[in-house]
Amino acid sequence: MSFPADFLWGAATAAYQVEGAWNEDGKAPSIWDEFVRIPGKTFEGTTGDIAADHYHRYKEDVQLMAEMGLKSYRFSISWPRVLPEGDGAVNEQGIEFYSNLINELLTNDIIPFVTLYHWDLPQALQDEFGGWESRQCIDAFETFARLCFERFGDRVHHWITFNEPIIFQTFGYATEAHPPAKRDPFLLYQVSHYVNLAHARAVLAYREMGNKGEIGLTHVSQPCYAYTNSDEDKEATWWAESFGFHWYYDPILKGEYPAEYRKAIEAQYGKLDITDDDLSLLKSARSDFIGINYYQPARIAANNQQAERTADRESNTSAAGTPSFCGRYRTVLDTDQFEYTRWSWEICPDALHDAMKRIHARYGDIPIYITENGLGDEDLVVNDEILDEPRIDYIRRHLLACQQAIEEGIKLKGYYAWSWIDLLSWLNGYKKQYGFVYVDRDNKLKRIKKQSYFWYQDIIATNGESL
Ligand code: BG6
After folding, report:
1. Is residue 1 part of a domain?
2. Residue 183's domain is classified under what CATH number?
3. DSSP code of residue 244
4. Which helix or strand (DSSP H or E) is residue 447 part of?
5. Does the beta carbon of 76 lie inside 6 Å of ligand 1?
6. What's the structural domain count of the chain?
7. Which ligand 1 atom minimizes the distance to the CA of 423?
8. Which one, out of 2, 82, 206, 254, has a CA that is 20 to 30 A from the CA of 281?
9. Residue 373 CB less than 6 A away from ligand 1
């Protein structure tokens, strides 16, 4: 049997995308609560005000997980729900919600896998000191992390500090598609360093507090391939890979920044505030595991047309076929050669396998979790049945890639499909679905099990044998 007996068959969500109850029981607004209210920023003005209403229906949702046989559920904690001011008084009602959710999961033999930061920074911190633009945010994050470890650490033994830094930083500071919607590449790099420090401080706090579980971080994993063999496409790929892979993974897994790339970006944008003490801190806090979110590879070409990445929502929702924020390369969309989803995301299970091999080659025998992978689609609904065959096919092929990686000796410990239930897509509203469970938005958010729900149930029951 290639999947280990303790393999975590999971599925994931994130607080803002699933909970709703955006202003209830003492929760303060996050930067997303404010951002979605700016006209034109989200698809048809959709918000997470109600989302899938998981906040009120978590018991029903956990029952559905239990019935499916889900081994583990990845969710995130909304920072402004537990600390409305970011680092001030604790909102006990917020703590109670997560505590109840965790207990409900454990009662049903489902292992909680918790993300601390899935992009919903308390608005108060953005207003007070510019959020991640300031070192003060590192202290605030440590306060938040310590609170979570203290209140939930007795029951939660798997922690992710940050979800996809590259996305909230690029979209937040280079393409204006996420809050705080700025266009300032220097800040993007500076913020990325402060977030790495916040991660390191949380890792050290976790260990110092004597917790017994594991702590890591989740990055996007998007292997880059030169579109042609030309020197200019290969050079463009070096830039893409240095930014998307090495700039983000090296500080977390090696405690350093890729030197040549750092030199190049500092020459272009200015000297970053990175001290020797910072680097020692990063070195002392290697993650126990790396989480990877994999959706697609990138086909990279030189940006010959010198096109600029625009700030509009559409060009930021489909990754293929757009220039990079720095103008040095662009991604290529080639429907003749490659297979794509409706949102022009390339479907390529081999690249998932390759991503794990690249991580293994660069960072050694680090345990890996696939913390997100899935198909965003508009599902076919026939007489109240959700026929999401394309999702089954997508996940099955990616799981086969996982199986191959395990057989080759990669320490893959779990797979979390994105997503457990249909939820808010940040920039595509409720139109783009990922879940095993359908949410009927015309009928009081009624939950309906999709075809993929039953399929995954069988995969879990056979520990992957029926793949
Ligand atoms: C990841 C995020 O980037 O991709 C999720 O961690 C997100 O929160 C998912 O929903 C899919 O992205 P999208 O834009 O298709 O909803």
Report:
1. no
2. 3.20.20.80
3. I
4. strand 446-449
5. no
6. 1
7. 10
8. 82
9. no
